[in-house]
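Subject: mismatched residue count in predicted assembly?

I count 695 residues in my input, but I want to confirm that the predicted structure covers every chain. Input:
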Amino acid sequence: MTSRFMPLSGDPPGSKVLSVALILIVLVLALAPFLFPGAKPLNVAAKICIFIALAASYDLLLGYTGVVSFAHTMFYGIGSYGIAMSLYSLGARWDAVGLGLLIALPLAALLALVIGLFSLRVQTIFFAMITLAVASAFAVLASQLSWLTGGEDGRSFRVPELLQPGTVFIPRDVLGIAVTGRTLTYYLVLVCCVLLFLLLLRVVNSPFGRVLQAIRENPFRAEALGYRTVVHRTLANCIAAAAAAAVGALNALWLRYTGPDTSLSFNIMLDILLIVVIGGMGTLYGAVIGGTLYILAQNYLQTLMGTVSAAAGEAGIPVLPQLFHPDRWLLWLGVLFILSVYFFPTGIVGKLRGGSG
Amino acid sequence: MSATDTDVGAALPKVRADYLPLLLPVVLALAALPFIPSGSTWVTLTIAGLAMGMMIFVMASGLTLIFGLMDVLNFGHGAFIAIGAYMATLVLVPLGNWMQADSIWLNLAAVIPAVLFAMAVTGALGLAFERVVIAPVYGQHLKQILITMGGMIVAEQVLYAFFGPQQIPLPLPASLRGSFMLGEAAVEKYRVVCVLVGLVVFLGMLAILNRTRIGLLIRAGVENSEMVEALGYRITRLFVGVFMAGSALAGLGGVMWGLYREQVNAAMGGELLVLVFIVVIIGGLGSVTGCFIGALLVALATNYVGFLVPKAALVTDILLMVVILLWRPRGLYPVTSR
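Triage response: the counts match. Full output below for your records.
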């Protein structure tokens, strides 16, 4: 693992436990279609890939540049809707996928540039508020312009034949599993997310990435050293936006559907924030650890909470059943989030690396 | 001695009063007049806009004051709005008979305790929130945003846990329902009440800030808190007091909004927070007057545009914010140098 990442970035995981965990996660994700047959586990695995890449692109902003943006889902949504709208209107063709990407990625970067030039020269707080307002307006627009986006129902579409679940590549089962277009789509998602992650790792460890960290630590000093902080921040914003749009496109291809709930909802923004903070801000590996744990928790913790809730209900304890109701899992993650900002500002990865807590 | 005093006074440059932003809502209202088919519709729309603006102002004023004095951006402010509205239902649902009664005194006997209860609870929660959650992260913007965001998530989930996910009805008292005729225009009674409450809050805040000793200390604290502390005043106490007042105002705004929509749900905190942020940005972070004008501008514009081009109303507030920031990049009345 370490030797593989070294030539790319010179930023190895830096802790044995962390390295082992990362290798394990990558191995399991790589073999997921064969290790866990069935639709739900594969969905979870794909979601993990997607959220790792998405959180990594957000970490470039939050962790490395110290910019709090609430517009990340907007860019993610632009990617999703780009693919969805072009596949919906042109049909299941590869050039439609290309066209969607060709429009969505530059559009996301351009929008990030406009927002950046407009407001990145102001302080963190101002930028956070402005991005929140812009993103919510975008979400409202997407759900209201139903002739274009399908409104609240979103758009279901067909993917190119190669990726369709009905396509079978190998007539006989491999290791007891049918190799279909679904499997291919999963590997497309996985490979693209790995590539995006490695690209981001390269960016944060480049001279440009070092300047971003300098800006995060002390913007005045960075400016005094001659770096144009607004330009650097805006560029970081554009890169993160384009990466988020790419991830959004992958998500749309995987789901074969795009709607406000799967691509623009504020809950996704919360997911990303929680993943980055719990995993560890300013360490891209934090996105891997945080994303994996978070998505697993989201999908399997609820079952556990349901059991606790039912048990507490039978035992006749008053408020506990409501607090542990499966729908309230965000409550506990919120508490965990606050505690980790206080006590583990460097997150799980920071702890594993033995950095100052 | 007195001669020197006058000399010092004379040496200070006179601060030029900046009246231009004050005219904006008036200009906006007059500019909309020719586009709207009848005068009576215009009156109805304007009063609806004023009422909505006043409610948003009540919610936003606390936030802007907290920011101006303490340099804390409280994303949890939306939670206080929702909590205020829920607390009002706790009082008003049992008193349903008084609310339905035809006597204005019985109605008030239900509404006033509900408002006071909501403000007391949100104020007390504000105190706890400031002491427990925010106090450790003063001066660290990134952590403040993350922590208050976390507080917002937790508060919303706790509301769901206690009150359930469904919407709770919060009906208007009988005597505030319906409308009366102003010339040919129908005016809803409750909107007039909202305008009056908003005006009282605005004038009260201006009076406290400009005419009292506490207001003097608050304004001095906004300018330079270390200096005020060095002069021997306990600025932290003042901070806590302002935070409580701001949270209580959010609670009041929540009750007003809940009665206006006649229903309450936990997601309203997050939805209104966005609107409140836009207003605070337009006004200039920390400025009460700017916040007042910003709220009126946003609400009036949304109402006029909503009547003329319904779809466009969804993004009116964002466009308004962009235009204002292009004109004055730090809001209408930038307060601090921060």
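The two ends of chain B are 36 Å apart (CA to CA). Marking this ticket as 'not a bug'.
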